[in-house]
């Protein structure tokens, strides 16, 4: 098994955040899938990165303005549908861990945290997932709703402010844009027992540097086949 995160599946070859994309990552034996979750108008957690369907489907408009029935009629590429979170979790069950990124922005999706936790429970994959977000208030709410779910904090840049919060909510994962990694930040994560994730690395020089300097850091990438020998 390859210890790395398949970013939105295998988007270099398949439509991102679709069943075909995630299946391709599983076929390559990646240890983790990374995906993005938003809520439809009627409260169904669906896997799509943007707050609108414009870029990745043949539709237009906000995800939040589509019912589940309506959003399923869109083509997400090659005839693929936008999958539900439950579908992807069941696909990965027993095969890979899943990094579920909440695409929460303030209160754009009221109830997103509750619906995601409920889906995890229904799929019975509590020990196979961790929930992350750039919106740290969403992660705090997730901890308030569940004492046991594994949590992570996503950062664009490294900051010492993340460590007190991670300790307070018992978050075991921190994801950082790879250009901000330093020996000091890596050391502090190691001291705190935090698994550090570097995103998103597609350049060969950057990937080889990461693997040589910090072999214990997980890398998130779109270039799945390219890094098999590097991992």
UniProtKB/TrEMBL annotation:
The keyword Hydrolase is annotated on this UniProt entry: yes
Enzyme Commission number(s) from the entry: 3.1.4.46
UniProt KW keywords: Hydrolase
InterPro entries registered for this protein in UniProt: GP_PDE_dom, PLC-like_Pdiesterase_TIM-brl
GP-PDE domain boundaries: 2-231
MF terms (GO), sorted A to Z: glycerophosphodiester phosphodiesterase activity
Pfam families linked: GDPD
Enzyme class: hydrolase
SUPFAM superfamilies, alphabetized: PLC-like phosphodiesterases
Name assigned to this protein: Glycerophosphodiester phosphodiesterase
Domain of life of the source: Bacteria
């Amino acid at each position: 098994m390859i210890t790395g995160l398949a970013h939105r599946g295998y988007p270099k070859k398949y439509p991102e955040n679709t069943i075909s994309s995630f299946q391709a990552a599983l076929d390559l034996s990646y240890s983790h899938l990374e995906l993005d979750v938003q809520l439809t108008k009627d409260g169904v957690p669906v896997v799509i990165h943007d707050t609108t369907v414009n870029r990745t489907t043949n539709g237009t408009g906000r995800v939040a303005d589509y019912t589940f029935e309506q959003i399923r009629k869109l083509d997400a590429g090659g005839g693929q549908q936008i999958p539900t979170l439950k579908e992807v979790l069941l696909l990965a069950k027993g095969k890979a861990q899943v990094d579920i990124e909440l695409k929460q922005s303030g209160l754009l999706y009221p109830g997103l945290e509750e619906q995601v936790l409920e889906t995890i429970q229904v799929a019975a994959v509590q020990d196979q997932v961790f929930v992350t977000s750039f919106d740290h208030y969403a992660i705090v709410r997730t901890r308030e709703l569940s004492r046991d779910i594994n949590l992570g904090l996503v950062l664009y840049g490294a900051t010492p402010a993340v460590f007190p919060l991670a300790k307070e909510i018992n978050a075991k994962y921190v994801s950082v844009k790879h250009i901000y990694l330093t020996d000091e930040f890596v050391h502090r994560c190691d001291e705190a027992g935090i698994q550090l994730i570097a995103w998103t690395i597609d350049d060969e020089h950057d990937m080889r540097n990461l693997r040589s300097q910090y072999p214990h850091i997980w890398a998130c990438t779109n270039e799945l086949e390219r890094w098999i020998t590097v991992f």
